[in-house]
Design goal:
The structure holds 2 protein chains of 2 kinds.
Chain A (H helix, E strand, L loop, with lengths): L3 E3 L3 E5 L4 E7 L6 E7 L6 E7 L4 E3 L3 E6 L4 E6 L8 E8 L4 E3 L3 E6 L1
Parallel strand pairs in A: 2-11
Antiparallel strand pairs in A: 1-3, 3-8, 4-5, 4-9, 6-7, 7-8, 9-10, 9-11
Chain B lengths: L3 E4 L2 E4 L5 E7 L6 E7 L6 E7 L5 E2 L8 E7 L2 E6 L8 E10 L2 E6 L3 E5 L1
Parallel strand pairs in B: 2-11
Antiparallel strand pairs in B: 1-3, 3-8, 4-5, 4-9, 5-6, 7-8, 9-10, 9-11
The chains are: A mainly beta, B mainly beta.
Chain lengths: 110, 116
């Protein structure tokens, strides 16, 4: 089946800098995209979502960008903090069923 | 709102025994629940989709007789790993889909299973 993938498996960021995590998806029929954060030993935590009729959505310190032309999704985290260190997954599909990418491990340097 | 719990949070069992994991939606009714498995440093892999009152739909390659799913109410789904073996050791995560008004999946904290 079609799947979602991430460009880079790891990302190291200086505390206070902005982080950008990228994701490429292959199913052009997907209409819903979500970013999750997963800390070690815990379940995924919802960060932000976006539907295919939008190209940008902002939350608290986070922004998701969707480029349907090239099937690319990104998560921007402003002023990265030590608590942002985790594995970040993008997922695509519809509300009912999701397909997860491989994950990017973000490490925040003090 | 939209809290999902799992019990137990971790379990160690002997090879050949069966283990039941519960998934509950605490503050909403979940029309659908999902069960995922996650191996170390890997992504979440969907095992099955569970609708209240009906049989679960299993993903390709997942043995339905090995992983029994019961979704008896709108707030509870259970996953039973039957005759567990060491290769079944994994992190099992459930999610609940709330439908109208809660149109996304909310994840539980996961259950760590170690089969000796």
């Amino acid at each position: 089946g079609e799947s979602v993938g991430l460009h880079l498996p790891t990302l190291s960021v200086q505390e206070g800098d902005n982080s950008i995590i990228n994701c490429a998806y292959s199913n052009s029929a997907s209409d819903y995209f979500i970013w999750y954060k997963q800390e070690s030993g815990k379940g995924p935590q919802f960060i932000i979502d976006i539907r295919s009729n939008m190209d940008k959505r902002q939350g608290q310190r986070v922004t998701v960008l969707l480029n349907k032309t090239v099937k690319h999704l990104s998560l921007q985290i402003a002023a990265t903090q030590p608590g942002d260190s985790a594995v970040y997954f993008c997922a695509e599909g519809d509300d009912y069923k999701l397909s997860f990418g491989a994950g990017t491990t973000v490490t925040v340097r003090a | 709102g939209a809290v999902v719990s799992q019990h137990p949070s971790w379990v160690i069992c002997k090879s050949g025994t069966s283990v039941k994991i519960e998934c509950r939606s605490l503050d909403f009714q979940a029309t659908t629940m999902f069960w995922y498995r996650q191996f170390p440093k890997q992504s979440l892999m969907l095992m099955a989709t569970s609708n209240e009152g009906s049989k679960a739909t299993y993903e390709q390659g997942v043995e339905k007789d090995k992983f029994l799913i019961n979704h008896a109410s709108l707030t509870l789904s259970t996953l039973t790993v039957t005759s567990a073996h060491p290769e079944d050791s994994s992190f099992y995560i459930c999610s609940a889909y709330g439908g109208l008004g809660r149109e996304t999946q909310y994840f539980g904290p996961g259950t760590r299973l170690l089969v000796l």
